[in-house]
Amino acid sequence: MAGLKSLAKDTAIYGMSSIIGRFLNYLLVPLYTAVLPAASGGYGVVSNVYAYTALILVFLTFGMETGFFRFANKAGDDPKKVYANVLMFVGGLSLAFVALCLTFLHPIASFLEYPDHADYVAMMILVVALDSFQCIPFAYLRYQKRPIKFAGIKLFNIVGNILLNLFFLLLCPWLYKVQPGLIDWFYDPDYLVGYIFVANLIMSAVQMLFFIPELRGFSYRIDRKLLKEMIAYSFPILIFGLVGILNQTVDKMIYPFLFEDRQEGLVQLGIYSATSKVALVMAMFTQAFRYAYEPFVFGKNREGDNRDMYAKAMKYFFIFSLLAFLVVMGYMDILRYMVARDYWEGLSVVAIVMLAEIFKGIYFNLSFWYKLTDETQWGAYFSLIGCVVILALNVWLVPTYGYVASAWASVAGYGVITLLSYFIGQKKYPVDYPLKDMAVYLLLAGVLYALSVWIPVHNTVLHLLLNTVLILVFIGYILKKDLPLKSIPILNRLVR
Question: Who's near 338: CB < 8 A, 6+ residues apart?
């Protein structure tokens, strides 16, 4: 139980930074949808470019985050030597990437169908190179169990990015109208999408300053034998990482190519991406859990077999994922105001996207069997299968059914690889997951969600009250069934 308390504490800290950070980033969604109307396709451009950068980020980190945790926790390996080798490898790869891409910038921009905006591509090349290198110091902070600094840097970056977006997208247009002489030397009112990338580049560069202490205090020497072992371990992780991120972004990359009219594809993509942001509460929880869980699992594995603890962690993750689903769907009458009204037609995908995120989180929990047994090739197989399913369904169904088909394709892809990972994992590294308890929670959440949808309440306030009661029923069941309330006397008395 002490181990779970430690995991819960770190998850809470990472989670607060993730939740607060994502919430602050959510503030950009109404801003973007207000200044970039759905019909313009501007938000579709942003989503399309960031989809490519997400894929490149995975390539440049090369699976070395997980490789670092694995080798830093292995007996006989010096964690600082492991860290130094990872830093030099990822840093060198990132520099080579920047040099190559900037050399062939215009052909790359033309291939991506942004021939008139090679500047967008150039900025995001620099951003993704900086971010990939910074992933390693962030991993080092997690290894050192320093979630406060980790969270502080993340939040600083997010707040700074928001302020720069507000400056470029709100303040500058206002100043350009009332006092153009102050800013016309650097501001172009037609460059709105570009300023989103400018803000990101500025903050990625500034963030490097915070890692100066993490870049000193050890020897920068390549250990060929160690690095070769780490590359061999991390390469399969890179492959399934690339395919895994394709699972999340391939629809956003191919959308403009699935429609005869590229502009229509960007419009559809903008609506889909904006409304999907409402579902990212689930992604926040999964990410926070991952930040704490990865070093936790590898550290516990060094101490011995802890399969019972892994099973409990899965159960609690699943329970709170369902709670997050009920909260988001229960308060959709409020959350829909995160996006401008001309994007509301896409809100039908939120529940579907959240279901995909639940599968993704379960799959992440299951994935540790092949990481702990050093059979990481299985992750590559699963990710490839999931990618094929998602890509095929998108190409087949999106031209007919639009973005709703993309959402269901994600559910299908993650659902398939979750089942594959579970059944194969039970043969390779059996863990006694509490499936019956989890099934009861799933059934309860399903019934409560159905009641929320089917009970005819047309008044918004009354509907919100009904959903609040339903959510409290679910929370009450958690408190009664699974939370260790004996250590919290006040709550313990309340549920008696």
Answer: 26, 29, 30, 277, 278
Rounded to whole angstroms, what are the CA distances from 288 to 103, 171, 281, 284, 442?
Answer: 37, 33, 11, 6, 22
pLDDT tens-digit readout, 279-292: 776 666 666 665 55
Distance of CA 2 to the CA centre of its chain: 28
Cβ within 8 Å of residue 78, ≥6 positions away: none
**SS3 state of residue 338:** helix
pLDDT at 218: 79
Provide the pLDDT confidence category of residue 250 given band limits of 50, 70 and 90: confident
C-alpha span between 485 and 479 (Å, rounded): 7
Helices and strands counted in the chain (H then E): 22, 0
Distance CA 338, CA 275 (A): 8
Return the DSSP state at 487: G
Angle subtended at Cα 129 by Cα 128 and Cα 131, rounded to the nearest 5 degrees: 60
**Which conformational region is residue 155 in: left (phi greater than 0), alpha (psi within -120 to 50 degrees), or beta?**
alpha
42 or 296, higher pLDDT? 42
Q: Tokens for 163, please give them.
A: 């302020």
Q: Decide if 202 contacts 232 (C-beta within 8 A).
A: no
Q: What are the φ and ψ backbone dihedral angles of 104, each rounded to 5 degrees?
A: -115, 40
Contact between 163 and 169 under an 8 Å Cβ cutoff? The reply is no
Tokens of residue 479, six digits: 């408190």
Cα angle 422, 425, 429 (rounded to 5 degrees) comes to: 140
Average predicted confidence (pLDDT) for the chain: 85
Domain ranges of the chain: 2-454
340 SS3 class: coil
- Report how far residue 14's alpha carbon sits from residue 151's, in angstroms, rounded to the nearest whole number: 6
The per-residue pLDDT for 9 is 58
Of 324, 320, 313, give the one whose Cα is nearest residue 365. Answer: 313
Question: Cα–Cα distance between 208 and 126 in angstroms, integer?
Answer: 13
Task: Give CA–CA dist 313/5, Å, rounded.
Answer: 11
Residue for token digits 């990865």? 294
Which two three-digit tokens encode residue 285?
A: 């929880």
Q: Fill in the amino acid letter for 45.
A: V
Q: What angle do CA 105, 106, 112 make, to 5 degrees?
A: 90
Tokens of 161: 């990015």
Separation CA 138–CA 140 (nearest Å): 5
Amino acid code (one letter) for 211: F
Residues in the chain: 496
Angle at 137 between CA 232 and CA 18, to 5 degrees: 105
